[in-house]
Specification:
This protein is α+β, with helices and mostly antiparallel strands and about 1000 residues long. The chain is about 45% helix and about 25% strand. The strands form seven sheets. The protein has an eight-stranded mixed β-barrel with strand order 29-30-32-33-34-35-36-37, surrounded by four helices. It has a six-stranded antiparallel sheet with strand order 13-12-11-16-15-14, sandwiched between helices. It has a five-stranded antiparallel sheet with strand order 2-1-5-4-3, with helices on both faces. The chain is elongated.
Length: about 1000
């Protein structure tokens, strides 16, 4: 024995003869107690009190004999401990060191490391044994918690439908989430290193580039915009992007992180609104009664409500689907139809506008005259649409006919005396003026504003008949909307300039006010003196209502009628001004419905839209009259509260909102229950401008969701700190990978038939230079999001291969090393070449390497998976399906895959042996594996009962805390020495 061992041996011999205080001296060097066993004199057995306290017993109730622990240790661990004891007694170089489990007095399991040293006589015979206990329970529990956290986070990340990207400073993709397959039609691997603009719709590339460049120059941290993406199949998606700039210590941008959400439906609604507005503007520019549009791409026709009225079709059909061209043409007489078709042909061929007067037969059989105009709409030099107007000119045609008759009569009167001639000429002038403007309301007065003549349009608009009007003063038409000063200015203009034009409010005979566009001109005699006034007017009440409607649509949500973000920001600006004067606060509540997407997915968008309308009504009923509620889009609402005196007011309202919104809604016969998450921000402390206040309220809302949903959260400055923490962690992770600081831990895998270690699973760990341990649940998703999973995965694979070689060459252990591959790694086109390069570089045999990939990752791209796995299998590398049973594998595909091992997910192991359902699942997987000539490995084995049951079911191999957690590389040899294969 070495000198130190010899000295210790002498000390132990002396210890048996001295006072117990000496034992306390030795015990103070250990955390959880000493024990002593006299092999020659069993009555000298002794266990320290600290050991019994560890197991929850009163030391005074124990005799402190070694034999007492045999009733508390797990039977299989006792067997292992006795085996190691015998080996140690037989060979002083064989260490007495193992991890065993004890039953605590409360029934729980206590993990203990038990180490011992035999004291031998001169002949080498062991005569006494002294040892120490170390409590490992907390370590075991912490390791299990880390594994569970990793699983939960991985499940969450895999569920998102949003597109997550990273772009370098040159504009090329360095990372994309799996949803790029939907939006780009390519895998993430195929998109890497390609310019992001390549996937933007060609028509949006210039504007996207300009907006992006302007944002970068502004030095703002984040940026949101909407553009269209087009995939390789030609499908177009409208995406809402949120971009964040990542800068180095010098403030230079090194990359951009982006999240995109599919807002195609929302943008389509905006496009429909814009189309309606454009049509209205075209109609107004042509000064017509009704407007129409022909889309040459599908030959569909759109009519305004007035066009249906001219055709004497029911007004209700004005919102019908697009019409056919033949339907519109058939209303015209045969001659007019030919003339119109000829004009439209010229318009389509060379863009030649037309202005025609045609005869039309209405749906009720009435013959009328219409004036129709048409012009072409171009896009990139091509005619894509025809637009124009149509108006009923039957009345004008009647007046023109009457004018011709009058002119004929006047010619006969020219031969009469000069006075009669002058009178006839004057009458002709008046008649011509009236007839010229007969399509609109016309009134003729004398210089005292007494009505002397009107036309039919006047009666139609005002409600006053000819008999009721003539002889009356024009004041019968006036409303109370204008003061005396207004009318004075009007008459001053007439007297000085001989004309006046503008918009004016009048009142119909019924008392209904209406607005008209009025033009008044003086009729003068040969001396230039005014003798009459002619007023021509047009009722523009509906047009004004349309303008107000368009303005309302621009500032309000189309679905709920609530103010939109634009109007809310305007009101916030006003509220901030009021708050500055009053000293009160302005509160902003950001409300998001929890799990609203499930309603759309399960019940359809119609139910979802109706639910949003009902939510808006319920929220309005909760609020004060002076509060503003707005819809941001999707399932997000904003509430602005003015004149807030205390935070308690806002908290009280938020509590009411979460309570009321959680009550069920009755939608289409279904009872729907949704909850809401509310974020609160206060002006001025949480934001001095609308955008900042909205952003901070949004941030608080997401914190409420993270806290379990159906709750509210006040904005705090610590939320900004979390963002900074994430950026700091990202930079540290980059450096750690660059500096090769990541560590690899190894969890043993046990052959069921022999109970020996046959392999190890490599698991990456990150311990920072300052000793801080970063959970894999935190840094692995981060590495995937920022495009570092590939270099990290290569580091882990290389370290694991090097360690495999060292175990074989230096220690004689020929083990199989299992390494996990993420889905992103598996999408590399050169995966097999990359793996084989590392195998060649580290000089290990391919049969010593096993690669694991999850079942769900395999099924994401089955065709590519089969090719990748075949390449690896042909090279001699073992392949395992991790977490089998948790995905959605197709057996038809599974039989085609070169899989060697199915790893049974721990979720099916945890309930054994009590759960009959888990038992059946495990049995089924065993049968499936046997049918396909595959091996099975059960993960997460923690108890003796699970071990025995899995062994009886025929499971080939096991791993889990029952055998060992993942351990450092430096501790692997010690573990293997105690579990020699």
């Amino acid at each position: 024995m070495p000198d130190n061992d010899h000295y210790l041996k002498q000390e132990l011999d002396w210890l048996t003869k001295t006072h117990s205080d000496i034992i306390l001296f030795f015990e103070s060097g250990f955390n959880d107690g000493l024990w002593y066993w006299d092999l020659e004199n069993p009555e000298n057995e002794w266990m320290s009190p600290r050991f019994w306290e560890l197991l929850g017993f009163d030391p005074k109730s124990k005799k402190h004999l070694v034999s007492e622990w045999q009733d508390l240790i797990f039977p299989e661990d006792l067997e292992k401990a006795l085996e190691n004891f015998n080996k140690h007694c037989a060979d002083e170089n064989y260490p007495y060191d193992q991890i065993v489990r004890y039953r605590h007095s409360n029934g729980s399991t206590v993990w203990v490391r038990c180490r011992g040293l035999a004291v031998r006589d001169d002949s080498g015979k062991p005569i006494r044994l002294i040892g120490a206990h170390t409590d490992l329970t907390a370590l075991k529990e912490a390791q299990q918690a880390v594994i569970e956290s990793e699983f939960k986070l991985r499940s969450f990340v895999n569920s998102t439908d949003d597109l997550i990207t990273q772009v370098d400073a040159s504009g090329n993709f360095t990372f994309l989430s799996s949803s790029c397959q939907k939006y780009f039609g390519l895998s993430a691997e195929d998109c890497l290193n390609r310019p992001a603009l390549d996937f933007v719709h060609p028509e949006d590339r210039q504007s996207t580039h300009e907006a992006f460049t302007q944002w970068v120059a502004s030095a703002e941290t984040s940026f949101s915009y909407v553009n269209r993406q087009i995939n390789v199949s030609g499908e177009v998606y409208t995406m809402l992007w949120t971009i964040n700039a990542i800068r180095n210590d010098e403030g230079e941008i090194i990359s951009f992180n982006g999240i995109a959400r599919d807002v195609t439906e929302t943008e389509q609604r905006k496009e429909i609104l814009a189309r309606s507005e454009a049509l209205l503007r075209e109609v107004e520019s042509l000064a017509d009664v009704g407007g129409w549009e022909v889309d040459l791409r599908d030959n569909s026709i759109y009519w305004t409500r007035q066009v249906f009225e001219i055709h004497e079709l029911p007004v209700e059909t004005s919102i019908a689907s697009p019409l056919e061209m033949s339907f519109a043409i058939n209303f015209y007489s045969q001659d007019s139809q030919a003339e119109l078709e000829k004009a439209m042909a010229k318009l389509v061929e060379n863009g030649e506008n037309y202005d025609l007067e045609l005869q039309l037969i209405t749906a009720k059989g009435n013959n009328i005259w219409v004036r129709t105009k048409g012009r072409a709409v171009y896009e990139k030099g091509d005619i894509i649409k025809l637009t124009g107007s149509i108006q009923n000119i039957s009345e004008r045609k009647r007046i023109e006919s009457h004018l011709r008759e009058t002119q004929s009569l006047l010619k006969k009167k020219l031969s009469r005396e000069s006075v009669e001639k002058k009178a006839a000429l004057h009458e002709l002038k008046l008649a011509a003026e009236v007839f010229k403007n007969s399509l609109e309301g016309i009134v003729i007065t004398n210089t005292d504003a007494i009505i002397i003549d009107i036309n039919q349009a006047f009666t139609d608009i005002t409600g006053y008949s000819r008999n009721e009007s003539i002889g009356q003063h024009t004041r019968i038409l006036q409303s109370d909307r204008h003061d005396e000063a207004f009318y004075k200015r009007l008459w001053d203009a007439l007297n000085s300039e001989g004309a006046w034009a503008g918009e004016i409010w009048n009142m119909r005979k019924s008392g209904e006010p209406y607005i008209l566009r009025l033009s008044i001109s003086a009729v003068t005699d040969t001396d230039g003196k005014a003798t009459h006034y002619v007023a021509v007017f047009r009722d523009i009440t509906e047009m004004k209502a349309s303008e107000e409607h368009i303005l309302h649509q621009a500032t309000h949500d189309a679905l709920t009628g609530l103010p939109n973000r634009t109007l809310l920001k305007d009101r916030l600006d006003v509220a901030f001004s009021h708050a500055k004067r009053s000293g009160n606060k302005v509160a902003l509540l950001f409300i998001d419905l929890d799990d609203f997407k499930k309603v759309n997915d399960s019940l359809g968008h119609a139910h979802g839209d109706n639910l949003l309308r009902e939510c808006a009504k319920r929220l309005k009923n909760i609020l004060r009259e002076e509060d503003t509620i707005a819809r941001m889009g999707g399932d997000e609402f904003l509430i602005m509260m003015e004149n807030v005196h205390s935070t308690e007011e806002v908290v009280h309202l938020s509590h009411r909102i979460t309570q009321k919104m959680s009550e069920s809604f009755s939608i289409g016969g279904d009872d729907i229950v949704v909850t809401s998450s509310v974020g609160i921000a206060l002006h001025p402390q949480d934001g001095k401008d609308p955008d900042t206040l909205i952003r901070n309220a949004d941030m608080a809302m997401y914190r409420a969701k993270q806290s379990g949903k159906n709750s509210f959260q006040l904005f705090t400055r610590s939320m900004h700190q979390e963002v900074r923490h994430k950026l700091s962690l990202e930079n540290s992770l980059r450096k750690a990978i660059e500096n090769n600081e990541m560590e690899v831990y190894y969890q043993p895998k046990i052959k069921t038939s022999t109970g020996k270690v046959y392999g190890l699973e490599a698991l990456v760990r990150w311990i920072k230079p300052n000793g801080q341990i970063i959970s894999p649940a935190e840094f692995i998703p981060l590495a995937e999001n920022i495009g570092l999973i590939h270099p990290l995965g290569e580091q882990v694979l290389k370290k694991a291969c090097i360690f495999t070689r060292e175990l074989k060459q230096k220690k004689g252990y020929n083990l199989q090393m299992s390494v996990n591959l993420s889905f992103n790694q598996f999408q590399q086109s050169r995966l097999a070449e990359s793996v084989l390069d590392i195998v060649s570089e580290t000089k290990i045999d391919t049969h010593n390497l096993e690669l694991e990939i999850t079942e769900s990752a395999i099924m994401k791209d089955i065709e590519k998976t089969i090719n990748q796995l075949n390449n690896l299998s042909e090279a001699g590398i073992s392949l395992a399906v991790d977490d089998f049973g948790t995905g959605y594998s197709s057996l038809s595909y599974l039989k085609e895959l070169p899989i060697d091992v199915l790893k049974i997910d721990q979720s099916f192991i945890r309930g054994l042996p009590e759960s009959t359902k888990d038992m059946k699942i495990v049995t089924a997987i065993q049968s499936l594996a046997k049918s396909f000539e595959m091996q099975t490995v059960a993960e997460g084995v923690e108890t003796l009962e699970q071990y025995r049951k899995l062994k009886s079911l025929g499971c080939d191999a096991l791993q889990g805390f029952f055998f060992s957690p993942a351990i450092q590389e430096s501790n692997v040899i010690d573990f293997l020495n105690s579990h020699q294969p």
